[in-house]
What we know:
Blueprint: E1 11-16, H1 20-28, E2 35-41, E3 45-47, H2 52-56, E4 66-68, H3 69-72, E5 79-83, E6 88-90, E7 95-98, E8 101-104, E9 107-110, E10 114-116, H4 134-153, H5 157-163, E11 165-169, H6 173-189, E12 203-207, H7 219-232, E13 234-237, E14 240-246, E15 249-254, E16 257-262, E17 265-268, E18 272-274, H8 277-285, E19 295-296, E20 302-303, E21 306-311, E22 316-317, H9 330-348, E23 363-368, E24 371-376, E25 379-382, H10 383-397, H11 401-417, H12 428-439
Parallel strand pairs: 1-2, 1-9, 2-5, 9-21, 11-12, 11-17, 12-13, 19-22
Antiparallel strand pairs: 3-4, 6-7, 7-8, 10-18, 14-15, 15-16, 20-21, 23-24, 24-25
Amino acid sequence: MGASLENHRPHEVVIVGGGFGGLYTAKALKNVKNVNVTLIDKRNFHLFQPLLYQVATGTLSPGDISSPLRAVLSKSKNTKVLLGEVNDIDPEAQHIIMGDKLIPYDTLVVATGAKHSYFGNDDWQKVAPGLKTVEDAIEIRRRIFSAFETAERETDPEKRRALLSFVIVGGGPTGVELSGAIAELAYKTLEEDFRNIDTSETRILLLQGGERILPFVAPELSKSAAESLQALGVEVYTKTRVTDIDNEIVTFKQGDQVQQISSKTILWAAGTQASPMGKILAKRTGTECDRAGRVIVEPDLSIKGHQNIFVVGDLSSFSHQNGKPLPGVAPVATQEGEYVAKLVKKRLQGRTITPFKYNDYGNLAMIGQNAAVVDVGPFKLKGFPAWLFWLFIHIYFLIEFDSKVLVMIQWAWSYLTRKRGSRLITGKESLALAKVITQQPSMESR
């Protein structure tokens, strides 16, 4: 590795991306002697993505699940944080390019995550937003609550039905948790808030292409999750493929049966693809990517032919354990980040470690209040015990202590009152909606 083993100057570790993979790499290198760490991200905060759906449905505020990177790493005296976006990499000169700035590295860790995949139908993105960023969550929140507000003013029954119809595409954890949260919102939280509409008339459709929702949990838990969603009022469709989204009409096919539904709120939770950094790495290093654009890595998470460049998290395609790429979930990213940090420390000591091995602690998903599924090793939980376990795990893994306290308070309040304190409609389109509403004649004058 050349300069990576020299001890006469600090070893420069550059980490691109402040998600779970990048942040946990930096934390594991905290105050390591003779190591300097530079963490680069285009956002100045770490986002706890597993709770993003609760921002989208008004239970939590963005600040409850976001932690400023500088604050998280303030006690890591060997670490600096830079706000910016990496445009290119020069593996021969060993530096990354950020705008007009060159930043040298001895070890490079790329953890830029993934974005939504519409499977070649990118024109659907404007109509059916996904949920990956704070901006996504705020936009989805705006669409959900604007739908109810507009329905309150709408007198045309057909248009009102479209406003009160919500379609979620994708039956993984995000889709299941979103559909359950919207159901509780429509049938419980908002049931007494409106005068001209009956929110119990809301339709929520969850469309899953596979044979069952939550395919990563045991079949009996998947079945339990579907039953819990149906008990909440969600219509669960499996073996169902969306064939078109046009003019706010969703066309989907289940077997030989083709159906359509008019919906003003269509949400995408069906797939992801690697960030553009995957293509840059492939171009500059000659490495290969899989069909989702993820970089295929070696058993130690490095790139073939470049032992000092590592890829972790959702951008990494690691299939050395069981022949299948590891899932794009937070535990994978955190374990990969901690492994790379350990490997760097050992290499600087002239030693090495065994290849990366992911310890799968299981999968879990929230269905609704008092309902969840947990598949952890030999333990298969559902209902209230699973719900409590889900709460504990998510509180435990929140980054900052004040976030843990705030989220616990918000959850306790929501549990006791069924109220959601972050039901704000924000954004330019919300101002336009307000203007339209105020210009319309009132119901009494019609």
